[in-house]
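Second attempt. The first submission of DUF881 domain-containing protein had a stray character pasted in from the spreadsheet, which I only caught after the job came back as garbage. Lesson logged: always re-copy from the clean sequence file. Corrected sequence (318 aa) follows.
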Amino acid sequence: MSEEQTETGTGWPQPAGPGRPGGPAGEPDGRPGAPDSGEVSPLAAAAESSSVPDVAGAGAVTVELSSVAPSGVGSSEASSSGPAAVARRFTSAGAMIALLLGLLGFTLVVQLRTTSTDPTAAATRQEDLVRIFSDLDSREKRLRQDIEALEESQRQLRSGEQGRQAALEEATRRADELGILAGTLPARGPGLSVRFEAGAKPISAYRVLDAVQELRGAGAEAMQISGGDGAAVRIIASTYFLDGAGGELVVDGRRLSGPFTITVIGDPTTMATALKIPGGVAASVAGDGGNVIVEDREVAEVSALHAPVKLEHARPVS
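This time the job returned cleanly.
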């Protein structure tokens, strides 16, 4: 071998002339006349121009376009039907809102007319309200006094030596109160005399019962009703009133002729206020052409008695 050849390891000589440099991959070839790395080989360009088009790829594109077309049509149909549905919903909502507004306006008009034409509200003046409040204050004071009396009785009953005597006195007092309420004992005290005089229409049992209820609500403790002939009937919880012939009144089975007078024991001011309130007993009788005369009594006597009722079924609970 000559000096210009080197051993290749296979026994064949290899020229020692200039070869491709063994630098890193991707670096440009430093030999003179070497092609640039960015140039395209003429053979590669010819191969690309002579290659056959991919028929399968074109078919795939055609299939994709055909698959897109129906979806576009469906979306246009949905978009065309959307405004009509929204319009229908808005039309129903508008009709419902208009109906509710109409009902609200009608209710307000009726309320205003009722308030403006209510005779009771128009007749209730400031002084009438003051009387009603005064009546309520009187009831509250009376109830507080009752509470204080009961508390005092409780303290006396709990005391040692005076317990027995206090218990006896308390039992006697309660028996007297129950006797007055039941109508088996006469009573006296401050109160009123309420006289009913008929006008064009006779005094009805309903008017008398209304007066009795008003007096009870105002704190009446004992009552009796008498007729023009002086006959009297004690009024208790079970007393009933009926209209009789010729303007008479039937009270617990007894006939009374007019004019009728109720004698009641209680706070005169409170009871008189209850009878004279607007739209009350006095106003109702006056509307029928009659008259109600209310007079204070420093000492009103309720002497008519009610026969005690024998109980057949009720028994006290011990």
